[in-house]
TrEMBL record, chain A:
Single GO cellular component term: membrane
Annotated InterPro entries: AAA+_ATPase, ABC_transporter-like_ATP-bd, ABC_transporter-like_CS, ABC_transpr_PhnC, MetN_ABC_transporter-like, P-loop_NTPase
Pfam families: ABC_tran
Source species: Pelagimonas varians
NCBIfam families: ABC_phnC
Gene behind the chain: phnC_1
Residue spans crossing the bilayer: none
Protein name: Phosphate-import ATP-binding protein PhnC
From TrEMBL, chain B:
Residues passing through the membrane, by range: 21-42, 83-103, 115-139, 241-260
Membrane topology listed for this record: Multi-pass membrane protein
Location of the ABC transmembrane type-1 domain: 79-261
GO molecular function (one): ABC-type phosphonate transporter activity
Family of this protein: Belongs to the binding-protein-dependent transport system permease family.
Pfam families on file: BPD_transp_1
Alphabetical UniProt keywords: Cell membrane, Membrane, Transmembrane, Transmembrane helix, Transport
Domain of life: Bacteria
Protein name stated in the entry: Phosphate-import permease protein PhnE
Length: 261, 269
C-alpha cells in the first residue's frame, strides 16, 4: 500500500538523514519505527507526505507516486495521509472543534472553511470522533485549555477525520506520562484496527512499541538495521540499533507486562 | 577530569565581553574621551536662554489657564478632522499592511515576493512622516487628504515589519499540521498562521492607532490638516492659552487610547 524506493534525504548542511531506504507497508499494518535521536525517523515520516522534500528516490501510496506530484495533486494525496505529531501540534488558539475540522480542509473550499461553515456530515463525524475519544464535551474549549493527553486525542481526531488510508505518527507519546502514553498508543492501534488503517509510528519507547505493534523497523544513521516482529528485538539487535547498553531491563519490562495482562 | 583539582579553591569570574585586556581599556578610555569632547562642543548662549525663559514661563503658565472656549469651534473642527484622519488612515494602512506582512515573512512567502515586500517596508520606514507629509502637501495641497495618505503610508512600514517578524517567529509545527491535512495556501494562512499572530496584530493595530493620532497633531504643522493645523495657528497668534487647551485635549485622548489598548490587549491574550 505504501512503498519507499531508495529514498534519500540529504540536508543542505550535508547531513545524510536517509540513505536509500527501502520499505513496503501492506494495507492495515501498524508499524513502529525505532532508533536513536537523529537516526532520521522524523525525516522519513515527513518525506512520505513531503513536508520535507526527499532528495531522491520514490514514494508510492497505492499506485500514486507522491514524489513526482505537482503541488495541487500533492494536496489531494495528503488528504489520504493523516498525521499525528509530537507535542500535538494543535493550533492552540483555535477551539477543539476547529482543530478537528481542520482535518477536512483538503475537502472544503476556502470560503466555507473561512466562515467555519463545514458540511453537516463533517460536523457530525467530528462529534462522533470526539465522542469516541471521550472529548465530545470539550468541543468548544480552546485547544490550549486541554491537558497533554486530551490534546493528543484531539490530534488523533484531526488525523482520522481526513478519512485517511495511512497514518503517519511522529512520537505520539513524547512528553506524556507513562499511563497516558499507553492509553494513547492503545487508542491509535485500536482505531487503526477498527478502520483497517496502516500506520507508521515513530517512537522512542521500545517497550511501548513492542507492546502494541505487529512489526518493528530499527533505523540507525538513516539506514534500516532491523525489520521484524517485536519479539525479534534481542539485546544484540538493540545494540546494533542504539549502541552498547544493558538491554535486559527494557525487554524484561515488556515480558512482565505481557504476563500480567 | 584530572585538572578539576587545579580549579578547586580558586575564585570564578564571568569571562569579560571583550577578551583582550588592552582593547577593553582602549574602548573605555576612548568612550570617556569622546563624551568629554562632545560636551565641550555644546555652545550655550546664556543671555538668549535668559530671554527665552520668560517666554517659556508664559507658555507653561498658560497650562494653568487653558482657554477651551474662545476658539472652541476651531478646536472642535480640528479635533474631528484629526480623528477621522487617524481612523481612516489606520484602517487603510492596516488593511494594506497585512498582505505585505505575509509577503515579508520568509517562512510564508517565496523569495521574490519576500524581497519586494521587504523593499516596500524599507522605503516606508526610511521616509520620515514629516518628509512624506511635505511632499504630499505639495502634491495634494493643504488639508487632511495629505495627512491621511501620509499616515497610511507610515502605518504600512511599521505594522508590516512587526507583523512579519511575528509571523516568522510563529510555531512552525502548528502550521505544518494544517499543511499536512491537504489545506490550500489560503486555508493554511487562515487556520495555521492567523490564529497564532492575531493577538499581536490586534495589539500592534491599537498601538498604531495611538501613534497615528499623535502624528496627526504634528502633521498639521506642515499643512497636512487636523488638530495640528489649529495648534499651529494658535502658536502663530501667540495664543498660548488656546494652544495649551489643544495640547491638554491631545494628552487626554492619547491616554484614553493607551488605556483602551491595554484593556483590549489583555482581553485577546
Amino acid at each position: 500500500m505504501l512503498r519507499l524506493d531508495k529514498l534519500v534525504k540529504t540536508y543542505k548542511t550535508g547531513d545524510q538523514a536517509l540513505k536509500a531506504v527501502e520499505l513496503e507497508v501492506p494495507e492495515g499494518q501498524v508499524l513502529a519505527l525505532i532508533g536513536p535521536s537523529g537516526a532520521g525517523k522524523s525525516t522519513l515520516i515527513r518525506c512520505i507526505n513531503r513536508l520535507v522534500e526527499p532528495t531522491s528516490g520514490k514514494v508510492y501510496l497505492g499506485d500514486v507516486e507522491l514524489t513526482g506530484l505537482s503541488s495541487g495533486a500533492l494536496r489531494r494525496e495528503r488528504r489520504r495521509m493523516g498525521m499525528i505529531f509530537q507535542e500535538y501540534a494543535l493550533v492552540e488558539r483555535l477551539t477543539v472543534m476547529e482543530n478537528v475540522l481542520s482535518g477536512r480542509l483538503g475537502y472544503v473550499g476556502f470560503w466555507r472553511s473561512f466562515l467555519r461553515r463545514f458540511p453537516q456530515s463533517d460536523v457530525d463525524e467530528a462529534f462522533r470522533l470526539l465522542d469516541r475519544v471521550g472529548l465530545a464535551h470539550m468541543a468548544d474549549k480552546r485547544a490550549d485549555e486541554l491537558s497533554g493527553g486530551q490534546r493528543q486525542r484531539v490530534g488523533i481526531c484531526r488525523a482520522l477525520i481526513q478519512n485517511p488510508a495511512l497514518l503517519l505518527v511522529d512520537e505520539p507519546t513524547a512528553s506524556l506520562d507513562p499511563k497516558t502514553s499507553r492509553q494513547i498508543m492503545r487508542l491509535i492501534c485500536e482505531l487503526c484496527q477498527e478502520r483497517g488503517l496502516a500506520a507508521i509510528i515513530n517512537i522512542h519507547d521500545v517497550a511501548l512499541a513492542q507492546m502494541f505493534v505487529q512489526r518493528v523497523i530499527g533505523l540507525r544513521f538513516g539506514a534500516i538495521e532491523f525489520d521484524g516482529p517485536p519479539d525479534g528485538l534481542t539485546p544484540e539487535v538493540l545494540t546494533t540499533i542504539y549502541g552498547e547498553e544493558d538491554w535486559e531491563a527494557t525487554i524484561e519490562a515488556v515480558e512482565d507486562e505481557e504476563a500480567s495482562a | 577530569m584530572s585538572d578539576v583539582n587545579a580549579r578547586i579553591g580558586k575564585p570564578w569570574r564571568k569571562p569579560p565581553l571583550v577578551q583582550r585586556r588592552w582593547l577593553r581599556v582602549l574602548l573605555l578610555v576612548g568612550f570617556i574621551a569622546y563624551l568629554i569632547a562632545a560636551f565641550l562642543t555644546i555652545e550655550v548662549n546664556w543671555s538668549r536662554v535668559y530671554a527665552g525663559l520668560e517666554r517659556g514661563q508664559k507658555f507653561v503658565l498658560a497650562f494653568a489657564n487653558p482657554d477651551f472656549t474662545s476658539r472652541s469651534s476651531d478646536i472642535w473642527e480640528g479635533m474631528l478632522e484629526s480623528i477621522i484622519m487617524t481612523v481612516a488612515a489606520s484602517v487603510v494602512g492596516i488593511g494594506i499592511s497585512i498582505p505585505i506582512a505575509l509577503g515579508a515573512a520568509r517562512n510564508v512567502a517565496p523569495l521574490p515576493v519576500y524581497l519586494i515586500c521587504r523593499a516596500i517596508i524599507a522605503i516606508s520606514r526610511a521616509l520620515q512622516e514629516i518628509i512624506v507629509a511635505i511632499l504630499l502637501v505639495a502634491i495634494f495641497g493643504f488639508g487632511p487628504l495629505a495627512g491621511f495618505l501620509t499616515l497610511s503610508f507610515a502605518t504600512i512600514g511599521f505594522l508590516s515589519k512587526l507583523l512579519a517578524e511575528d509571523i516568522e517567529s510563529m510555531d512552525r509545527v502548528q502550521a505544518e499540521a494544517i499543511k499536512a491535512s491537504g489545506a490550500r495556501w489560503t486555508q493554511w494562512i487562515n487556520y495555521g498562521v492567523q490564529p497564532q499572530v492575531m493577538p499581536r496584530l490586534i495589539g500592534l493595530s491599537m498601538y498604531r492607532l495611538d501613534i497615528n493620532f499623535r502624528e496627526s497633531a504634528i502633521l498639521g504643522l506642515v499643512g497636512a490638516g487636523g488638530i495640528g493645523a489649529t495648534l499651529n495657528t494658535a502658536f502663530d497668534r501667540y495664543e498660548y492659552d488656546t494652544a495649551a487647551a489643544i495640547l491638554l485635549i491631545i494628552i487626554v485622548i492619547v491616554m484614553a487610547l493607551e488605556y483602551l489598548s491595554g484593556v483590549i490587549r489583555a482581553r485577546v491574550q
